[in-house]
Design goal:
Low-confidence stretches: none
Helix content: 25-40%
Strand order of the largest sheet: 11-10-12-1-13
Structural class: alpha/beta
Distance between the termini: 24 Å
Mean pLDDT: 94
Shape: flat
Bound molecules: FE3-S4 cluster
Number of helices: 9
Number of strands: 13
Order of helices and strands: EHEHEEHEHEHEEHEHEHEEHE
Strand content: 15-25%
């Protein structure tokens, strides 16, 4: 007789500190902030969560023009300072859910610019977090994602570097070493947040042992898609689901170990629903 499969959740999975904090602030605002309450852009890249917030009374505004009265919630990625000023000028109540680790990048960028450094932001051009960082550097910064991007920039003698929170230490090291060959002084403030890398490392470790991997989270979430990619490289039977209802019994035939991971924008309730669905479909046991 074959025994029931085991379910194991990756050591680091699901919402990070900044997203959990933003969700709690939104839930609080739904009942206590002046109505109507809107998030400026989706609070996180997870359509289910955006729907849940809508049901709780927190709508979605693409721009300040879509939130004429009441309150606006600034998401964990942060924004350029002008957006907060404009919202206040229009009489809106601002609930600033910018992650404190992202604020740290803003302050570092401001300090380096004030101290006269040419600012380089290591990150993904066009990403909302990077746009917010640029706004705190008087838009005088250059965004660089790889050493070759430096070729298009006239590098000054004194260069300051900050990093988008989700970048890797390797990407930062490569760019700093290329800068050291070109500038007299390179001042680096390492603003990487470990949450993303912890999730990737834990997913990789579990996927190398699991027979089936389930990755839970928004299909539009960059960090969840990256987790799915890492898992698929180590476990061919990897499935990325947004919701537990997408999980199919046939995926688990013959599996002994079922691994679960989730992006930094996946609330723990969604992971729990996936675990329950797998237990119901396969009789699997989740060792807690
Ligand atoms: Fe903040 Fe790090 Fe999450 S910067 S939003 S805790 S990934």
């Amino acid at each position: 007789m074959t025994s029931a499969p085991r379910i194991e959740i990756a050591e680091h999975a699901g919402v990070c500190y900044g997203v959990e904090r933003a969700l709690a602030m939104a839930a609080d605002a739904a009942t206590s902030a002046p109505a109507p309450v809107h998030t400026l852009g989706p609070l996180i890249h997870n359509p289910l969560v955006v729907d849940e917030l809508e049901q709780a009374g927190v709508g979605l505004a693409d721009t300040l023009d879509d939130a004429a009265t009441g309150s606006v919630i600034i998401r964990a990625h942060g924004v350029v300072p002008q957006v907060i000023e404009q919202a206040r000028d229009r009489g809106l109540t601002v609930i600033d859910a910018t992650c404190p680790y992202v604020k740290r990048v803003h302050h570092a960028a401001e300090r380096l610019v004030a101290d006269g450094y040419q600012l380089i932001v290591v990150g993904e051009s066009g990403h909302p977090e990077v746009e917010g960082i640029m706004g705190h550097a008087d838009d005088r910064a250059c965004v660089v994602s790889a050493p070759c991007d430096l070729d298009a920039i006239e590098i000054e003698k004194r260069v300051g570097v900050v990093v988008q929170t989700t970048q890797t230490q390797e990407a930062l090291a490569d760019i700093v070493s290329a800068l050291l060959a070109r500038a007299d002084e390179v001042r680096v403030i390492n603003t990487i947040c470990s949450a993303t890398q912890e999730r990737q490392k834990a997913a990789s470790e579990l996927a190398s042992r699991a027979d089936v991997m389930i990755v839970v989270g928004g299909k539009n979430s960059g960090n969840t898609r990256r987790l799915a990619q890492i898992c698929a490289e180590r476990c061919a039977a990897t499935h990325h689901v947004e919701d537990a209802s997408e999980i199919e019994t046939t995926w688990f035939a013959g599996a002994e170990l079922i691994g679960i991971t989730a992006g930094a924008s996946t609330p723990s309730a969604h992971i729990e629903r996936a675990v329950n669905a797998i237990c119901n479909l396969t009789g699997a046991v989740h060792a807690r």
